[in-house]
Amino acid sequence: MNTAPHGALRAALIDLDGTLMDTAPDIAAATNRLREDFGMTSLPEARIAQFVGKGVDLLIHRALTDDINGQVDAERFAQARESFRRHYSAINGSLAVVFDPVPTGLTKLREAGLRVGCVTNKHSEFTTPLLARAGLRDLLDVVVTADEVAHGKPHPDVIFEACRRLGVSTQETVLIGDSANDVQAAHAAGSRCVLVETGYNEGEPVHTLLEGEGGADALFPDFAGATQWALQAARAGMA
To answer: What is the fold, at CATH topology level, of the domain defined by 11-22+97-238?
Structure first.
């Protein structure tokens, strides 16, 4: 749990992959087309989902080596990145689904007076069309992607930038996510953090992220529970 002093909750920032949407089907399809381009066999979607979370560059290294710590040489990576970009652009949003509680949850948060944003390690060229296609963009006050800041999560830059655009402090903000990246980014920013179990967390058990001083504030099965937590925190701050 983040023990830094907090003000009344005024904003909720939300991760994209695994929190707002199940994007693993899109990512797996594009990744396996990339592997096919390099003469490799397909990997199961569940395996590829473990590679998600730290941006497209690490995803490509991991996909080509089938190793979460794998690395390929610069020339091979450059070829692979262009291949993945082409395939993912064609697939993006065609297989991904919005988690059922999300549209209602976003609406409730905004109706309660909270500012709502999306902060993601996905780049803007993929994030913008995906959110539009999913019908989520109009439910968000701001979207900040990793390519708009110096560093993606687990660095706190996307949180700082989103709060700047929303006119709130990080201490008045909760980050709703699904992974260690989100917990670490929120802690570094001085924000609260709530997790959902619908995501990926690089294949590691998400419940372990509740442990210790730097752990998350709460864990819920899905976005409905996270929404209720944020609404209660906002009401408590207004009392």
So the answer is: Rossmann fold (3.40.50)
